[in-house]
Amino acid sequence: MQVWLKGSSPLRFPVLPSEYKVSGNKGIETVNINAIGEVDLEGMRGLRTVSFSSFFPQHYDSSYCEFSRIKKPGRYIKQIEQIMSEGITRIIITGTPINFSCRISSFDYEENDGTGDISFSISLKEH
Fold this sequence. Notes:
single chain, 127 residues, 7-stranded antiparallel sheet, two-stranded antiparallel sheet
């Protein structure tokens, strides 16, 4: 499995998330009709959201890094912020059905253990 953001500047995440979450919905409206009762009116499928958490390592470690030529964490952060400002990208998680145009709806990161690794969580909304 590989996790990519593909756009003008493709980004492959260096450490796979332990899990990812896909959320979706369908527009269903309920109305109450006199003499019939409650009826549901089916709508269209809503936009999907994909979210996951991982980290950007300061140093390469073959036990968890997906590839050896990793960038410094700050470069990944700048690249994601650039993708956010550009607007539309594509999320691809190989080996899964996740491959669609999206926008980054949230991106949070922090350094919390003094190693230089940056933990992050990201959420992407289908476009």
